[in-house]
């Protein structure tokens, strides 16, 4: 299929290029993300960049080791794209540290009789539990799963109504999830800018 894409691109057969790209997308064993970025660069397949960046970042983050990208992978994607991905990983780590250390403001339900105690307990549980969850060297927790994780954590001395209201606000804001997505989007856009020149 890559050969068909190469010949089609060489002779600028647009329909054949689309057919070859579609065939590659339907492979039962998909191309590795570094190979998809290489194809994106070589054959100008822009819509493959963001999913490939996602896969590389998630693969690296799950393993917590940048060396999960081999020298061959770096050669395929290019040093500039690699540098952008490393920068994104650093920015995402800063975001994770910030989220784990700065609890969102607890929302008090009408039944909350002790706002100060409720707030203090919310912050205490957050600060003692979230760093170990979000910064664990043994497992990777995506920020998008934060509401589900928070639902499972027992916030002692925080009324259930306050916890539910706070989780509802966190889910509606989506700022944490959007920040993580924004980092990946900006990397994909920057990689595309490099590849199209």
Write the layout of secondary structure elements.
Blueprint: H1 2-10, H2 14-25, H3 33-43, H4 49-63, H5 71-77, H6 79-101, H7 115-134, H8 146-152, H9 160-173, H10 175-195
Helix pairs in contact: 1-2, 3-4, 3-5, 4-10, 6-7, 6-10
Q: Please, could you describe this protein's structure?
A:
By secondary structure, the protein is mainly alpha-helical. The protein folds into two domains: 2-95 and 180-195, no CATH class; 103-176, no CATH class. 71% of the residues lie in helices and 0% in strands. The mean pLDDT is 84.
Task: Explain briefly what this protein structure is.
This protein has ten helices and no strands. The chain is 71% helix and 0% strand.
User: Biggest β-sheet: count, sense, barrel?
Assistant: none
SSE string, helices as H and strands as E: HHHHHHHHHH
Q: How many structural units, i.e. domains?
A: 2
Helix content: over 70%
Helix-and-strand structural type: mainly alpha
> What's the number of extended β-strand segments?
0
**Tally of separate helices:** 10
> Which spans of ≥5 residues are poorly predicted at pLDDT below 50?
none
- What percentage of the residues does DSSP assign to strands (E)? under 5%
Morphology call: elongated
Radius of gyration: 22 Å
Mean pLDDT metric? 84
- Terminal CA distance reads 25 Å
